[in-house]
Amino acid sequence: MKIAVVAANGREGQLVVKEAVERGHDVTAVVRGDNKTVAKNVVVKDLFNLTAADLAGFDVVVDAFGAWTPEMLPQHSSSLKHLCDILSGVNTRLIVVGGAGSLYVNPEHTTQLKDLPTFPAEFKPLAEAQGKALEELRERSDVKWTFISPAADFQADGERVGSYETAGEELTVNAAGESYISYADYAIAVVNEAEQAAHVGERFSVYAK
């Protein structure tokens, strides 16, 4: 498969590139500066300057964009809109590296993880921004999108176990009552979805056993 990873120099982006390359896919890293990934194919361009021509011919585009400072948080929405606009009406699938804060914690889907009083206050603005981007994405019927939420405890340096469980829109815990996944195992889920196209037009979540 031909896979492009946008914002590939980020920690999750690098792992997605590595996972896809090791499986033999033709991977292109889209980065703003020097390529820090193992991809041999590189497009050096800011996400907001990408055109439809830049992403033409790919089977899958992975959006690994992330922003954390208050002034940058709105770019979760604007960057995703830009990618959707240039992928509108084509067969290329868009897989979005999402967050856990928008996962529901009740069967009625009226309360999200970020709404709980126990949710860390410092992460709430990020969760709100990612949740807004997801809601906007749900309105797009012109793009073959998938949004993948990690577990609540998303560990950058966690061990690559090589397996994970999938769930839907609700926060799900393992047998030990934990909602955890490593960046490396999340990357496996991203590339599996790229290969299998099992959740087109859906948000799903992943967590460690």
From TrEMBL:
Q: Which domain of life is it from?
A: Bacteria
Q: Which Pfam families match?
A: NAD_binding_10
> In this protein, which residues make up the domain named NAD(P)-binding?
8-192
InterPro entries, alphabetized: NAD(P)-bd_dom, NAD(P)-bd_dom_sf, Polyketide_Oxido-like
Protein name per UniProt: NAD(P)-dependent oxidoreductase
